[in-house]
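hey can u run this one w/ 1,3-dihydroxyacetonephosphate bound, need the structure tokens asap thx
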Amino acid sequence: MATRIPLISGNWKMHHNHFEALATVQKLSYLLGDDRNGRVEVSIHAPFTDLRSLQTSIEQDDMDISLGAQHCHWEDKGAFTGEVSPAMLAKLNVRYVIAGHSERREVFGETDEWVNNKVLAILRHGMTPILCCGETLDEREGDRTEDKVAGQVRAGLAGVSPEQVGALVLAYEPIWAIGTGRTATADDAQATCALVRGTVAEVAGAEAAAAVRVQYGGSVKPANAAELMGQPDIDGALVGGASLDADDFAKIVRGIDA
Ligand code: 13P
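ok here u go:
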């Protein structure tokens, strides 16, 4: 069976200007130290305006933190006012790019097709997509979680080779748990992350499913992180609010209960 190194990702959303970003990442690096020995990977997904400053600081100080982005377009260049291309992110040594976060789907109207275009473009530029999926409260209460989540996974992975699928990251984020302080129980999170992995097995085979990393996201805090990440099909976390504070995020990475 494949060894899956957990990935704990901080999604800062629209928070932290580049000064705040530098201070937060430097503190985080100091708190985490260099003693992770490959047991857990960490990525920070900062706003676009922070990326160049963070890249310089991470590389100069040889920090054990991967640079991440929250979004990109799928074309390399063109008349797309306001957008940033995957080629531009790759040039900054960005390693992980979130694709299809529920806020982008719900607030900015991203469709499954756009998300799939982005996944393919991110891969084409040698970066790793973190493909998000998750159901609303209505869908959960209407017993439609399985259809929604499996459908998003299938659509997002269309045209991706089994080898590439095995190397990417999926994030299950129930929408009702994002920023609400409500977390899925460890059992529920495990069950849906297992469904995500099972869907990967259907579309890309058993080997890809055993290798792919599945994160849980939605009100992950120092107090609940260890139990969630201890589940067999959960390989890390996608953390919003608690990643803005270096102390809290470091506690999550270290699995220390606050
Ligand atoms: P919170 O941790 O603030 O609930 O956000 C989760 C999320 O959306 C991460 O992408």
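The chain has a mean pLDDT of 96. anyway lmk if its weird
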